[in-house]
Amino acid sequence: MTPAIDAPHPAMHVDLEYRSLVDQEQLESNSNFNIRIFTDGSKFEGKVGAALSMWDGAAEIKALKLALPSYSTVYQAELLAICRATRELLKLKAHSYGIYSDSMAALQTVTNVRSLHPLAVETRENLQTATYQKKLVNLFWIKAHAGLEGNERADRLAKEAAVGSKRKHDYDLCPISFVKRSIRMRTLDEWNQRYQNANTAGITKLFFPDAVAAHKIIKKIKPTGITTQLMTGHGGFSEYLNRFGCKDNPSCICEPGALETIPHILLTCPVFASIRYNAEINLESKMDKDSLHKFMLGKNRDIFLEYCCKLVNKVVNRNKSV
Ligand SMILES: [Zn+2]
């Protein structure tokens, strides 16, 4: 962001607006300018480019391709193209100009005097200078991929700029979204390392060996009291209740000495042998300690969770009534 102190004084603000042109007809009735400049930004195969195509009547008089680093957003590329269009028109002699962009977001940023995005600030400065030069500049939004000739040309150039360019970047400030994402990835990595190296959360790790992957899966599951007890092992299970002095015996009802834990309930307890057998038929796979997490990933997650919750429910209720 441009520091507020470097932004133009509020008294210098010009009222800016853009108009939306939805079809060829509206474009044609708003094409009566000495020079028309079509701008576009593109992200293609992870590479980012921008371009402008300048027209005098039916002839293209100049085309510019601009390169951006791969961490840039299309939005930045679109803004850069508009900004360069305003810079280019300052060099020309013509009186009236139309600048066409298919990015509503970029046009909104440019016309919002409160936005301190450096490209928007420069664009507004250029437009201010243009008015001193007695130039008339109009901004337009046009629909992308609507077959408008100038827009198609700018689109093609922007893609070429994204893919082909090996030269120095025309703009390399990284977007805040990139910084946020980088910080988030680092935080997640750190969290995952602590999670994986810690001796705690043994039961949770059976379901989610990886904390980052877990985050994506958990978003899809509606948590209930039962799923929470299932995935943490903290709940109405004899081994857990015994550990906290709430039950004298940590064993399951099936056999003295067989600790009533989540792995026991889900994988070995003979009391649930027939339910387990049916579940394994539905899952088309045997369950064991090392495979539980795989059922959380795939299409069988619902069947698997239904099986687990059914058993947990039975055990928790059984222990309640003791
Ligand atoms: Zn048992």
Topology, element by element:
Elements: E1 18-21, H1 24-29, E2 35-44, E3 47-56, E4 59-68, H2 74-90, E5 96-101, H3 104-111, H4 118-132, E6 136-142, H5 149-164, H6 176-197, H7 202-207, H8 211-218, H9 225-232, H10 238-243, E7 251-252, E8 255-259, H11 262-268, H12 273-283, H13 292-297, H14 301-320
Parallel strand pairs: 1-6, 2-5, 5-6
Antiparallel strand pairs: 2-3, 3-4, 7-8
Bound molecules: zinc ion.
The number of helical elements comes to 14
Bound small-molecule species: zinc ion
**Top-tier CATH class of the largest domain:** Alpha Beta
Beta strands, count = 8
What does this 3D model show about the protein?
Helix content is 48%, strand content 17%. It has a 6-stranded mixed beta sheet with strand order 1-6-5-2-3-4, sandwiched between helices. It has helices spanning 24-29, 74-90, 104-111, 118-132, 149-164, 176-197, 202-207, 211-218, 225-232, 238-243, 262-268, 273-283, 292-297, 301-320; strands spanning 18-21, 35-44, 47-56, 59-68, 96-101, 136-142, 251-252, 255-259. The relative contact order is 0.11. It is of the alpha/beta class and 322 residues long. The protein folds into 2 domains: 4-177, Ribonuclease H-like superfamily/Ribonuclease H (Nucleotidyltransferase, domain 5, 2-Layer Sandwich); 197-320, no CATH class.
Task: Give a short summary of the structure.
The chain is α/β, with parallel strands linked by helices. It has helices spanning 24-29, 74-90, 104-111, 118-132, 149-164, 176-197, 202-207, 211-218, 225-232, 238-243, 262-268, 273-283, 292-297, 301-320; strands at 18-21, 35-44, 47-56, 59-68, 96-101, 136-142, 251-252, 255-259.
